[in-house]
Amino acid sequence: MALNTRHNSRRAAAPVGARAAALEALCQIERGVAPADALAPHTASLDGRDQGFAHLLVLTTLRRRGQIDSLLKTCLAHPLPRAAARIRDLLRLGVAQILFLETPAHAAVDTAVDLATAEPGRFAPLVNAVLRRVVRERAALTVFANDPVANVPRWLWQSWVAAYGETTARAIATAHANEPPLDLSLKDEASRDVWLAALNAEAMPGGSLRLRNAGRIEALPGFADGAWWVQDMAAALPVRLLLDGLAQQGRGEHAAVVDLCAAPGGKTAQLAAAGHSVTAVDKASDRLTTVRENLERLKLSAACVAADGRQWKPAAPVDGVLLDAPCSATGTIRRHPDIAWTKSAAQLPSLCDLQASLLDAAADYVAPGGVLVYAVCSLQAEEGEQQAGAFLQRMGGRFQRMPASAAVVGGLPCIDPRGDLRTLPCDLAEQGGMDGFFAARFVRS
């Protein structure tokens, strides 16, 4: 059985308050609220250790939800009524603690029963009976604990099998079930050795630093000094494609660059740190505030514009554009496991239409000989490979694909035969994996 024992002492000491916060958050997430937003109001009064437990409990429950629900089906003589949704979530939290977090059985069961007692409907005896059965039969329930494919909704599973084959799709599901490490991008890559030592970090291909058991980000060396920012190693690669493309086109210094759909700002920071004149454009003004705050901490500068990229245009054509387009974000499920349960196939057509319109608008920003990089943190071919191909057809020769090589991304084997970038969560699995990204690079004729 796949078990995580890193925080046992913390889990054993966590009071009902942390579990009550997790229950409230999980109920809100079912209604589409992001985990961070759902947890914040319910954990504000808890100390840091219990906040961490509540956060870990919610994310583990979401990562393993399919496995947990399959197990609960066998333990319930009859399905719970629709009105008992909170009891269902409470049972999920209890199973997650018993099977996946190694919480002491008495703590997981007793606190769940206490919480159930406060709910209407007299479900406390049922909660007690189900969770005690899970404790008794834990060894026999490994079949549920060892099948990560159960955590993938059918529409996603079928799309991944079609795109990557069943073996790779299973590897993706396995990667999503595990807690990911923390990746950092450095402002000054020449200081890499200094921060590898100071942060006890691992050097990753492509230039990122990887931390395990990082703790509070704000407390890490270099945060207050603006030496680095949090960014998954895969998310840093599209900018490397753009920087390399600009250099190939003789625009490697002080280029005028637009970062379209820029928030939360990691890619803006990469471009600014490379010395370019960056305009960060995002439709959401509140998300642009985060970009400005990050740039201020990092002591970097960029012009920030709150605008819809389909209507906005730069004052003059620019050397390069990076479009990290809105998407289903299925490549980030390992960090945001709620996505698997809150997104649906029905949302893809409208997202693809938006991506196409943003791509066409971004194409008009680019000067002749300039470079355009299109990226999405999605595993869906409709949003990646198919979108890039359709763009070239629409452009009718105005743009050509500018193939990348593995050397541009630190030798990672994630450049496909067309020269596009495709990373998968199961890539570098033994080192902790990475987010799923697609990026294609084009040059204007």
Key phrases:
445 residues; alpha/beta; N-utilizing Substance Protein B Homolog, Chain A; Alpha-Beta Plaits; Rossmann fold; four-stranded antiparallel beta sheet; 44% helix; globular
Shape-level CATH architecture of the largest domain: 3-Layer(aba) Sandwich
- By DSSP (H or I, 4+ residues per run), the number of helices equals 18
Strand coverage percent: 5-15%
How many structural units, i.e. domains?
3
What does the overall shape look like? globular
Which fold name is given in CATH as the topology of the largest domain?
A: Rossmann fold
Poorly predicted runs of 5 or more residues: 1-15
Question: Which oligomeric state applies?
Answer: single chain
In the CATH hierarchy, what is the superfamily of the largest domain? Vaccinia Virus protein VP39
Compressed to H and E, one letter per element, the order equals HHHHHHHHHHHEHEEEHEHEHEEHHEHEEE
Fraction in helix: 40-55%
Q: Taking all residues together, what is the mean pLDDT?
A: 93
Please count the beta strands (DSSP E, at least 2 residues each).
Answer: 12
End-to-end separation: 56 Å
Describe this structure in words.
The chain has 445 residues and is an alpha/beta fold. The chain folds into three domains: 139 residues, NusB-like (N-utilizing Substance Protein B Homolog, Chain A, Orthogonal Bundle), CATH 1.10.940.10; 49 residues, 2-Layer Sandwich (Alpha-Beta Plaits), CATH 3.30.70; 208 residues, Vaccinia Virus protein VP39 (Rossmann fold). It has 18 helices and twelve strands. Strands 5, 6, 7, 8, 9, 10, 11 and 12 form an eight-stranded mixed sheet that branches. The longest helix is centred in the last third of the chain and has 18 residues. The protein is globular.
